[in-house]
Task: structure prediction
Amino acid sequence: MTSDSIKNNRNKNKNLTKWFSNIPFLRESQIMKIHYITGVGALFVVAIHIMMRLIMPFNMSLEFENVILNYKNIFYALLLESILILIAIHGFNGLRVILIEIRQTQIWERAVNILVIVAMIGIIAYGTRTIIIANGFSLG
Amino acid sequence: MTSAATSAKRIDDNNSKNDRTNREGLRGWLNPIIYGWERVSYWFQRLTGIFLLVYFIGHVYETSSLVSGPDAWAAMLELTQTIGGHLFLILVIGASTLHTVNGIRLIFTQSGQGLGKPGRPDYPYDPTSVNNKQRSGLWIAFILAAVAMLYGANVLFSGE
Result:
């Protein structure tokens, strides 16, 4: 085998690896860092979210008017959006890890990646819609 | 059979075993018996993770009823204002606490903390990484989950 053909094979393999890798622009170690950061981030924002339910009697805090008032507060709306994004990324990446542990083929891994990314975007879009409508586009 | 043919057959056998047929799949994943508490922690982390993801999707859907007005919100809220709904939420509280505390332990573990010093493998070959620090982290996760569930039960059933 000539050095040129070795080089060509190497490039071909590199392209294949890139094409079939989990997520082409991120290494698995980087994805796991994102997983941990979103997990720790979610811990703090969810703690605030739960505390907001406990600053008054629990049943009262869930009354429609009180919940809408929460959503109309821009800082709380931003908090809810951050919870939505952090947990969607953390949760669906966790699901991806589990599904890839169960089976390892290129088609399966690509299908799982596509599924979790679509689901992640879908749930973030749906939750954001609720936050925007309930906020009523007001900043007050 | 010559020794070369025997070893070739053995390699063939090993290859066929490695050809994904010897995998236990979900059964192996869920088997806690031969792997100890670390395996229990492994599948608790995954099961609570899946459970919380399902709850998260349901919660996003549930809160979307806000945009349909007070009646839709009250109707959706009624689902959780039952004993079954409260028990489900208590399970969510327990699962999220366990997942969080065990997850923090796993972050430390994966960054090399609390694994002990690597040493020569001597009989009975207990790995230094599976030590009391790791196990106590798991027990703390279980205890905190139980405490959080009790607190959650008190809030949910008293309504305060």
User: Anything to note?
Assistant: The longest helix of chain B spans residues 83-110. The interface with chain A takes residues 25-26, 29, 46, 49-50, 52-53, 56-57, 60-61, 63-64, 66-67, 70, 73-74, 77, 96, 100, 103-104, 107, 110, 155-156, 159-160 of chain B (CB under 8 Å).
